[in-house]
Design goal:
The complex is a heterodimer of chains A (about 450) and B (about 425). Chain A has 15 helices and two strands. With about 450 residues, chain A is an all-alpha fold. Chain A is flat and about 85 Å long. In chain B, helix 15 runs antiparallel to helix 18. Classes of the chains: A mainly alpha (about 450), B mainly alpha (about 425).
Chain lengths: ~450, ~425
């Protein structure tokens, strides 16, 4: 019985439980002199039956699913003759995968391999009985839960309180998903990074100036060891982000100022949605534009005036990334400028200042913490931006601050390291997680500073 | 008395004079400042216009397909078929020879091997499948000479459309091809139609036969998983934080986490997906299931923040009235507050979904970047999504793939615009102000 059918059966049991128990609550209520005699509406007794039927069964299935494969693998491996216990982990995994594929019918069994045949038989047997036991237990739990709820139907039973308690718990769990996600990110990135730093010393990673992660694919292969000095990546990331911010900060700030302080309502009604469209364009589109339109154009112009511009220049990626960030800065600044009270502008204008003097000397200083935090958030976005640089920036880790040359960034390297066909345990793959850790920590620090600046320096206007 | 008056008068005229003297400069500065603001807005608008026009201009040709009509002799014995073949046999038969001989029959004057070889390149390598399709649709065509429209090769298609770049090319091969096309056109055997195949097929190595359906279905499945997970979890979390959460440490940590997750780079979520869901939980690689889970974690902050704002905007008097009539807290919220906040919540959800639709970096990490021909049929099939299809095609050097990339971007943008329009409509139609 496939797992989806099992889920359908459990769902059906829960539904049946809901209707039966609700009906029973009605009957009990009528026998006792009306619905008002019940503690809760019949509906809630029904809900309780549904919850009791669904939740234990599903929890059991989830737990079973987590343990199942490990237990079966262990029992299958115990069949291996003693001579094989000396095999390395990698070979055991390989053997196990073969057995799994044969058991699933994907691969034909190796002829004459008795051990494999025995293991396959064992695996099929265990998988069969596991599925049977799992299904039986799940259905038993579901029916039992519904029956238990049926027995609880009596006027004094506080069904609504129980249901609401469960709903509250479920909501708390949903709210905690944010924490779980953060913990998951930290654990997965940190765990793999620690393994990486076991292979490559952290000092080499943080201070080395040479990046070429081409390790050998197999252990017995002769190849260069690969060096993991990440400084060129950091320089490249900073260079592209700096170009992006040089474009985005002045344009974003000035357009927000123009739109909030000067623009006529009609201009605003036209320009603001256009800015939102610009913000909603997927980054892959910007990347395509940078790689196929901007970069060749820059190269052509460079040739015209006798400059050699790389076809994957940092300038092209940076410029387009800058345009991508403009609406981000503009909308953040817009909010902050709007929060500055009109009375302050009126006061300044009343003293004879021109509008631009008012903006420069009154409005912007009052809005500065918000603006600074907006720029920090923009910087964190530029550093973490992936698609534009993957498509428009280079792969070679040149250590240069010349915007006309090709540089590579942290995000580009993460993508290239992880999208190849590589064993997961190699230093090359693990390096991606170390880079991810750097990225996560950097953006986290920027975000925290941004929040701190706003909290600490914001002036409260009433 | 008179002395102070004069002093005042002198001072007034002095300051006025000073202000007057600086006035022209200050006004000039004012104009410059205002112009800078105007220019900043104009630059963004210009870029937007330029981006859109360049993509539309590049992408439009991909919506047309060029077909060539061939009279193909479909002799059962030559094709290695019985006289009443099954559908599978029809699909498996090799039609390459029949197509080639029909091309030769069309241009009998070509006798040199090289010429013939070039002639064969007129039609797409997808043509045999079209012949098979025609036979399956009408088995009576077997043992007759059938006129079948087949796809032209992508370069022939570009020449036939007479795109600007081809007129510049004068090499021998292009000249010959022009002659063939002219001959076919004189015979009314070549025509350009709307490219339905583009929406009916999965990816392909042949640009003229490559379609978006696989990517569109992949995006739909991924978004389906994302919506299924992030909407209930996001709304429940928002209700909890807005209505139930006690002011304590845990609540603070949750709120900080949500705000922080909103600013974590998307690629980091991809790393989480690889390490957690693929390597630890052994979920299938390249599947919309994992993509949807990762994207739902990314969109959660958006949905939670929007839902909280919507819940906050429902006036407390409504909740008070329900509570006063004896409703429990949860009844109050589920019967009154939540329905009133629903338009705002849905608007936020749609905007979150639009973000998820355009997202590609985390999906690169979990292997949705593979070359996949088959259209996915479920959430565990290997699939790719629209933005990643754009990324994959943009890497291909053929001009026809560049056109298709732009066309795919246009399709993606149309979806995004529709979603955002729906969000705006919802906001306008249902949002109440109290």
């Amino acid at each position: 019985m496939p797992i989806s059918n099992l889920l359908l059966i459990i769902l059906a049991v829960a539904l049946a439980g809901f209707f039966v128990v609700r009906q029973r609550a009605y009957n009990v209520a009528l026998k006792n002199g009306g619905i008002a005699k019940l503690h809760s509406l019949p509906l809630y007794y029904g809900y309780l039956a549904g919850i009791w039927a669904l939740v234990p069964a599903l929890l059991m299935l989830a737990l079973w699913g987590l343990m199942e494969s490990t237990l079966i693998e262990r029992s299958v491996l115990s069949l291996a003759p003693l001579s094989m216990t000396g095999l390395g982990d990698a070979q055991l995994t390989l053997m196990l995968n073969q057995v799994k594929n044969v058991a699933a019918g994907v691969v034909a069994p190796t002829a004459g391999d008795d051990v494999q045949a025995a293991m396959v038989a064992q695996m099929i047997k265990w998988q069969g009985s596991s599925l049977l036991a799992k299904s039986a237990l799940a259905i038993l739990l579901a029916v039992g839960g519904a029956l238990w709820a049926l027995r609880q139907v009596r006027p004094s039973y506080r069904a609504r309180i129980k249901v609401e308690g469960f709903v509250r718990l479920a909501m708390l769990f949903c709210a905690s998903v944010a924490i779980l996600t953060t913990v998951g990110i930290i654990l997965s990135v940190l765990f793999e990074s620690v393994r990486f730093f076991g292979k490559v010393p952290i000092s080499e990673f943080m201070l080395g100036t040479h990046w070429s992660p081409q390790t050998s694919i197999r252990a017995d292969q002769v190849a260069s060891e690969g060096s993991f000095g990440a400084i060129p990546l950091f320089v490249g990331t900073l260079l592209i982000s700096a170009i992006a911010l040089t474009v985005a900060v002045p344009i974003g700030l000035m357009s927000a100022i123009y739109l909030t302080e000067y623009a006529a309502p009609r201009t605003r009604a036209f320009a603001k949605p256009a800015m939102e469209i610009l913000a909603g364009i997927p980054t892959v589109v910007y990347g395509f534009f940078a790689a196929l339109t901007v970069a060749p154009a820059l190269r052509g112009w460079g040739e015209m005036i006798g400059l050699s511009v790389s076809s994957e220049s940092a300038l092209a990626a940076g410029l387009v990334m800058g345009v991508m960030i403009i609406p981000f800065i503009s909308s953040l600044t817009d909010d902050v400028l709007n929060a500055v009270p009109q009375t302050m502008r009126d006061g300044s204008l009343g003293l004879g200042a021109t509008q631009s003097e008012t903006i420069r000397q009154v409005v912007i200083p009052a809005a500065l913490p918000g603006i600074v935090s907006g720029i920090l958030l923009a910087a964190s976005r530029a550093i973490g931006e992936t698609m534009i640089v993957v498509m428009a920036a280079g792969l070679a880790a040149n250590m240069t601050v010349n915007p006309l040359e090709a540089v590579t960034t942290v995000t580009v390297q993460i993508v290239t390291l992880l999208t190849g066909d590589q064993e997961f345990d190699s230093a090359k793959t693990l390096a991606a997680f170390a880079l991810g850790l750097m990225l996560f920590v950097t953006t986290l620090i920027l975000n925290v500073i941004a929040l701190y600046v706003v909290r600490k320096y914001r002036e409260q206007y009433e | 008395m008179t002395d102070t008056h004069t002093v005042n008068a002198i001072q007034t005229t002095d300051t006025t004079a000073i202000v007057r003297a600086g006035l022209a400069k200050r006004y000039a500065r004012e104009r410059r400042f205002k112009f800078m603001g105007w220019a900043a807005v104009a630059i963004s608008m210009l870029f937007l216009a330029f981006l859109m026009t360049s993509i539309v201009l590049k992408g439009l040709p991909a919506f047309t397909a060029t077909y060539i009509k061939l009279d193909i002799a479909l002799q059962a014995d030559a094709l290695g078929l019985t006289d009443t073949p099954s559908e599978l046999e029809l699909r498996r038969a090799k039609y390459g020879k029949a197509i080639k001989s029909s091309l030769r029959a069309q241009f009998p004057e070509l006798t040199k091997r090289k010429d013939k070889r070039e002639l064969y390149q007129l039609v797409s390598s997808y043509a045999p499948r079209q012949v098979a399709d025609a036979l399956v649709a009408n088995p009576a065509l077997l043992n007759s000479t059938a006129s079948i429209w087949v796809l032209a090769d992508d370069q022939i298609a570009a020449l036939a459309r007479n795109a600007a770049y081809t007129s510049k090319r004068t090499d021998e091969r292009t000249q010959k091809r022009r002659v063939y096309i002219a001959a076919l056109r004189a015979d009314e055997r070549i025509e350009t139609r709307f490219n339905w195949l583009f929406f009916q097929r999965g990816d392909s190595r042949e640009p003229e036969a490559a379609g978006l359906k696989g990517a569109i279905m992949g995006s739909l499945y991924t978004l389906f998983v994302t919506l299924l997970l992030s909407f209930p979890i996001g709304v429940a979390a928002a209700v909890y934080l807005e209505e139930f959460a006690p002011r304590n440490r845990l609540t603070d940590i949750i709120e900080v986490n949500i705000n922080n997750l909103a600013a974590v780079p998307s690629i980091v979520f991809g790393l989480l997906g690889v390490a957690m869901f693929i390597n630890f939980f052994h979920l299938p690689r390249s599947a919309p299931l994992v993509g949807g889970i990762v994207l739902s974690l990314m969109t959660l902050p958006t949905i939670i923040i929007a839902s909280r704002a919507a819940l906050k905007s429902v006036p407390p008097s409504i909740a008070d009235a329900a509570l006063a009539l004896g409703a429990s807290k949860i009844q109050t919220i589920s019967h009154h507050v939540l329905p009133l906040a629903m338009p705002g919540i849905l608007t936020g959800t749609i905007i979150g979904m639009a973000q998820a639709l355009g997202e590609s970096a985390p999906l690169l990490m979990i292997g949705m970047v593979a070359f996949i021909v088959d259209v996915p049929a479920g959430v565990t099939d290997p699939a790719t999504v629209l933005p990643i299809q754009v990324y994959l095609w943009s890497d291909s050097p053929e001009r026809a793939f560049t056109e298709r990339t732009s066309a795919a971007i246009m399709v993606l943008l149309v979806f995004l615009i529709l979603m955002n329009a729906l969000a705006v409509l919802l906001r306008k139609q249902f949002e109440r102000r109290w």
